[in-house]
Each structure stands twice: as structure tokens, then as C-alpha cells.
Predict the 3D structure of the following.
Amino acid sequence: MQKGNALVGQSGGPTSVINASLAGVVETALKSKKIDTIYGMRFGIEGVLDNKLLDFSNVDSEVIKALKQTPSSALGSSRLKLQDEHFAPILKRLKQKNIRNFFMIGGNDTMDTIHRVVEYAKANDWEMSGVGICKTVDNDLFGTDHTPGFPSAARYVALSLLQSGTLARDMKRVDQFVIFQTVGRSAGWLPAAAAAARQKSGDAPHIILFPERPFQREEFLELVKKTHAKHGFVSIVCGEGITNPDGSPVSASGTTDKFGNTEFGAMGGTSAAMILHRMLSDEFGWRGEFQVTESLQMCASDRTVPLDIKEAYGCGKQAVKLAEQGESGVMVTIVRTSSRNEPYKSGFGTAPLSEVANEERPMPANFISKNGMNVTKAFLDYVNPLIGDLPEFVRLK
């Protein structure tokens, strides 16, 4: 590792623990004998282009410490997709600030940004280490057991279903169905987490729809009919990115972001939950409701899992340690070291940035039921240690 300064940024959608990773990077870098100054990019890579960099040596240590308990992205985020004309001015700024260590906290697109910037610097004779810190509530990053931010978002979903499911059960003479939509463009980890809310047979949710499985209208309607006949109401959870058999989104939105990702329900489009609501009302004549919480799953600090904060902070620390050891071109990953029946334990590993940037991690087949509309015990064994214990509500006999 060549001694110099370091730069850290946040990108993409936030989580309730992304600032814990930032604190891990900053606190470790401030103590490093190989890093002189640690700068923060304001609004992701745009901060480099606009020369809006925060010198963390001027930030009170108590503020940095408190970042661990602060949701959203303290430095500000960005979804700028780098173009060829961006690289020369970025490298110029990196040289001006003597940046030899480049850290970013984010998902697939962020890892692609790190990889491209470091490769460009290398091709232009600028020695610089680039290490990514994994982050996304979607939990779809390649190479890691789970991503910081997912456990807390999963708990948000599970608690929401535990409470809204209780409401739906008691209001079934008024509303015969309820649909809860989670974020998650192409992976079903978050809608699947709703299953952790079940404590007894018949508890919500009854049906879970995943982006990994094509939405089959007739099979869905038949299961809804049977479930309603059995329980008197139907609780449904869907991922925002569920698609029809031809690959088109169930959501009516055709809007995409700068990376070409569909923005479900954006720009006045219709969400998947709204489409399903209309479908059930038209088919059965029932009254029901839909619940779309959008980005609240990414910033609900009141539902943050302590384990999530600990691992997010640890990922930030590990990124600096890897850079000190001369590692580059990798993302810090979380490795589960305990088996199914043991108390949960984890450590850290790495995955190549090039692979993370170009791969997604959908729900494995053994986590989804045969009919494609529920989870298996294997998934619950995976997710329950991450979510933690949920409250138990009494019910009248």
C-alpha cells in the first residue's frame, strides 16, 4: 500500500445501517499509519467531479461515532452512471488530493463504479487501492451470505406483516384481502422475509410472490380463492419487480433509471400491488387494500437490528484493513461461519469487484416452495437469525 489519502463515498439506495459502514471506514482510516487524510464524497462520485469533499479530520469524533445509529446516507447518495468523459476529470481530482485508497459503500452499480475508476487509474499510471463495502436491502449482491441493511429491512417487513396481518384477520368482515408490496427489483429476499411473521398456522402472509417466479394469473387466483375459503381473508406479499410469463413487469411502469433498471411505480405508474388489488376486486367483487411503503424499508432506524449495525461497521473496518494489506479490486463480504442448528456467527471475506458488478444473486430454488408462492423451512432457517425475535400478540379464543 502506498501512503497517501483516502476517499469514501455512498451510492445507490440507502439502508438503516449504511452510515455504520461509513463510521467503520472513517474511524479505522483516522487511526491508520498508512492514511494521512480521509475524505468523504458528497453525493457519491458527483462529489469528486464537483470537488465537494468532506475532510473527516475536521468532524467531531462523537458525530462520527453517532453515525452508527443514524439511518439513510449521511454523505448523500447518487445514481450517476459514469460516462467516458468523466474519467479524466475524476483522475485529475484524485491526483490533486493524492488519493491512494478508494472506498465506496453500495450495490452492484457502485461496485462497477469502483472497478472502472480503479482500472482507469491503473491504466494511466496512478497506483490506487479500490475496495467496496457491500450494501443493499435487496440482498441480491453476489458473493456474500447477506448484505448489511438486509437484516433490518427484513425485520421491517416481518414486523409490518405481523401487525398488518393481525389487523387483516380482525377486519376480514370488512376487507377480504390485503396486499403488501416490498422493494426489490429482481430478487425476492425481502418479500420472503414476511414469512418470519407467522407464529401459528393460518397467520399472515398466506401468499408470497417473487420476482424469481413468473406471475401465473390463474394459479394465483385459484390459490386466493382457496385461502379465502379457509381463513376468511387473504394476506398477500409481493416484490415490486414481479413479472408476467413474457417478462413484462406486472407493474405498469416503463420508467428506467440511468443504469437501465426499471423504476417500478415511478412517474405516476401503477405499482404491482395496485394491479393485484384491481385484479382481485374485479374477479371476486371483494373489498381490500394495498400497502406500499416504498423507501421506508431503507431508513427505519426504529427497527434496525443490532447485529446489522455490528456487521455493517465491521465491513467498513475490514475494507480499510484490506487496503492497508495492499488488497484492491475486491468487495468485503459477510461469511456465515455457523451451521443451521448453532448460534449465529459470521466473519468477513472478499469477492472480486468485476464479478459483483456483473452478477446478481436471486433467491435459490430451495428457498422457494414448489408452487412458487411461498418459502421453505430452509429460508426461515437462513433469515430468522438475521431478523431476531419478534413480539408475540395475544389472541382471544
Observations:
- Residues 150-301+361-387 form a domain with the Rossmann fold fold (CATH 3.40.50.460).
